[in-house]
Specification:
Layout (H helix, E strand, L loop, with lengths): L3 H4 L1 H7 L9 H16 L1 H14 L7 H13 L3 E4 L8 E4 L7 E6 L34 E6 L1
Antiparallel strand pairs: 1-2, 3-4
Length: about 150
């Protein structure tokens, strides 16, 4: 997994959405660096999606997904708090200290009876009637971002 700077690359892209002509030279350089960091994570991102996709866990039953992601984060320097809100599969991962505080939240539940082979753009279940993410890719039901 990339360092913290690479983890923040998508956030930098959002923060640097102005046209290059309207940016300071430093901001323009940061934007180019963020684009390069994101592009350099293409293989890792696909591996993460494929692994999470393979679990096909329903809401509040994401035990393998939770173990996989929290172990990955801990190996890369994040502090992980498990069992958030008294939900065994809920967790918060933090890196560093101070300001700004950037928070990302996603929901990666699969859907009942939506088993689907990864990378296939038409309905082709791995297991007929089993839960899955559908549509041949990881379906992220929600994404929220907060910067404080």
């Amino acid at each position: 997994m990339p360092n913290l700077r690479a983890c923040l690359a998508p956030v930098l892209l959002l923060a640097c959405s102005l046209p290059l002509s309207a940016q300071t030279p430093l901001l323009a350089d940061l934007k180019r660096e963020a684009v390069a960091e994101v592009a350099g994570m293409q293989t890792l991102t696909q591996q993460l999606v494929d692994q999470i996709f393979s679990y096909s866990e329903l809401a509040f039953q994401k035990f393998e997904t939770s173990r996989y992601l929290t172990a990955l984060l801990e190996r890369n320097g994040f502090r992980v708090e498990r069992g958030v809100a008294k939900i065994p599969t809920a967790w918060v991962a933090t890196y560093g200290a101070g300001k700004p505080v950037i928070a990302l939240m996603t929901d990666i539940d699969c859907i009942p009876r939506a088993s689907q082979k990864p990378g296939v753009a038409y309905h082709d279940p791995l297991v007929e009637g089993a839960p899955g993410h559908g549509e041949g890719s990881l379906a992220v039901a929600g994404l929220a971002m907060k910067i404080a």
